[in-house]
């Protein structure tokens, strides 16, 4: 059944994602024929653990690779691609996963030329999409991350084209959004991540300036505070540098040639092999993957996925995307039943009947 949801956007209350099609079976890896054999404890329904690379440029594509059962490594490099109708012609939306439900949040509708407050949720156990409560403020190009079973949205671009510093938090159990304070300054396209019950918001742009700020908020009801950063003139280069951050900041005596604080950033990590922006990133075991994105110098997508081996500190190229648009992507991990999408809903209901 199709209804009109938030922003007058046509959303089906129960939309089934098509069965995945293999779009690229070519890989330089020797793992191509490896099959995922992940099973639930006790011999129950078998599941696949997938690394999804979700296109945020409006193509509706969501490609995935099979992972090992512990999600520590890629099990098969055969690339599969699904078309997600809720993301067709929608750009710069947010993606988050809570309790193995995937949420597609906001974005910009290219056909209607408007920002969206729409939120839809994908249930991999049934292969269906449902409409959730809408954002309080329609927006795109925002930072998003999950923390403590909640989803946080930070900053972004509003319907009037202005960049905002407002934040919102979503409670999946109550299916409701509430205000979550303000960033110290407006930001579009910031990067957000959670660590030890703290939410970090880094970088982004405002006006004609790119920023290297790092802000944090402690706990779901905390207040954003500036940790480090100042406004610098933008560098029109695609940076290859990689950084790590520690929440431990050591004080040191203030002198004429030293700072009163030791920076929490480690700037000595090795550079990536391929400069890029708008890429997806995900940690698999001891490897930190950077996938897709665009080279600012050439304007072309970066089709080589690489990872940083945190044990050796060396970047390695892993696999290529030979098809599809990977110029603007996000990465998420999902566990999906190993049964056809068309049968998932029936199997799910039978399970509860039998139980």
The percent range for helix content is: under 10%
User: What number of domains?
Assistant: 1
Total number of beta strands: 31
Q: Can you tell me the CATH topology?
A: Neuraminidase
What is the CATH superfamily? Answer: TolB, C-terminal domain
Overall shape: it is globular
Structural class: mainly beta
CATH class (first level) name: Mainly Beta
Mean pLDDT: 78
How does the major sheet shape up? 7 strands, antiparallel
> What is the CATH architecture assignment?
6 Propeller
- The number of helical runs is 1
CA-based gyration radius: 21 Å
Q: How many angstroms separate the termini? A: 29 Å
Query: Which parts are unreliable, with pLDDT below 50 for 5 consecutive residues or more?
Result: 1-44, 220-236, 250-261, 350-355
Report the β-strand fraction as a percent range: over 45%
Region (Disordered): 1-48
Biased composition (Polar residues): 1-15
Keywords: Kelch repeat, Repeat
InterPro entries: Kelch-typ_b-propeller, Kelch_1
């Amino acid at each position: 059944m199709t209804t009109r949801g938030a922003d007058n956007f046509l959303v089906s209350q129960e939309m089934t994602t098509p069965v995945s099609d293999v779009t690229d079976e070519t890989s330089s890896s020797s793992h191509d024929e490896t099959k995922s054999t992940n099973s639930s404890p006790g011999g129950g329904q078998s599941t696949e653990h997938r690394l999804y690379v979700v296109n945020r440029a409006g193509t509706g594509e969501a490609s995935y690779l099979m992972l090992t059962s512990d999600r520590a490594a890629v099990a098969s490099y055969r690339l599969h691609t699904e078309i997600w109708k809720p993301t067709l012609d929608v750009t710069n939306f947010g993606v988050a996963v809570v309790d193995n439900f995937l949420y597609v949040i906001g974005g910009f509708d290219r056909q209607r030329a408007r920002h969206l407050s729409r939120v839809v949720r994908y249930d991999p156990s049934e292969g269906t999409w449902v409409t959730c409560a809408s954002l309080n403020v329609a927006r795109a190009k925002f930072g998003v991350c999950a923390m403590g079973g909640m989803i946080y949205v930070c900053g972004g671009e509003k319907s009037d084209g202005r960049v905002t510093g407002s934040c919102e938090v979503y409670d999946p159990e109550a299916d409701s959004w509430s205000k979550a304070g303000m960033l110290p300054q407006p930001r579009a396209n910031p990067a957000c991540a959670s660590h030890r019950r703290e939410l970090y918001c880094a970088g982004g742009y405002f006006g004609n300036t790119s920023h290297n700020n790092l802000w944090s908020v402690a706990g779901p009801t905390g207040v954003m505070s500036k940790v480090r950063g100042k406004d610098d003139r933008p560098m029109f280069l695609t940076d290859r540098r990689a950084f790590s951050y520690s929440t431990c900041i050591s004080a040191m005596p203030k002198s004429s040639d030293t700072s009163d604080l030791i920076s929490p950033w480690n700037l000595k990590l090795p550079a990536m092999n391929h400069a890029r922006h708008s890429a997806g990133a995900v940690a698999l075991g001891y490897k930190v993957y950077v996938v897709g994105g665009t080279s600012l110098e050439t304007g072309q997508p970066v089709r080589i996925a690489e990872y940083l081996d945190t044990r050796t500190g060396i970047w390695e190229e892993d696999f290529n995307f030979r098809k599809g648009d990977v110029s603007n992507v996000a990465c998420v991990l999902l566990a999906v039943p190993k049964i056809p999408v068309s049968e998932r809903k029936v199997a799910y209901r039978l399970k509860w009947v039998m139980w």
